[in-house]
Design brief:
The chain contains 4 helices and 7 strands. With 119 residues, the chain is of the alpha/beta class.
Length: 119
């Protein structure tokens, strides 16, 4: 579908990234890119060119808050992905949608719909 939304995946675990890529394809979204580090994700966030992002809170032990700040400043919707309650969101982003691991395709679909204003 030519008008499908493009999504940036920010995830440091290759298997989860591939699973999310499959989910996006099944749901009719297009993958923009997969970023596996905070530095790479910040660069991709600055470049833009995508409609929304799935943002893992913890990338190789480093919090992804700088990426969230860039996305927010750019007006790009994003969803935090978290594997646990240890990922206390910064107060400036506490109202952002979150997606708990392990993911299901239904949960990813609902989160993207919410982030993109489809609900």
């Amino acid at each position: 579908m030519p008008d499908s939304k493009t999504i940036l995946i920010v995830e440091d675990e290759a298997m989860i990234g591939m699973m999310l890529e499959d989910y996006l394809d099944t749901l009719g979204y297009r993958l923009h890119a997969i970023a596996e580090s905070v530095d790479d994700a910040c660069a991709k966030a600055r470049e833009g060119g995508f409609d929304a992002a799935l943002l893992d809170c913890n990338l190789h032990g480093e919090k992804s808050w700088p990426v969230a700040d860039i996305l927010a400043q750019s007006g790009i919707p994003f969803i935090f992905a978290t594997g646990g309650m240890a990922d206390d969101l910064p107060t400036g982003h506490a109202d952002r949608p979150t997606l708990a691991k392990p993911f299901t395709i239904g949960a990813v679909e609902r989160a993207l719909n919410k982030a993109l204003g489809a609900e």
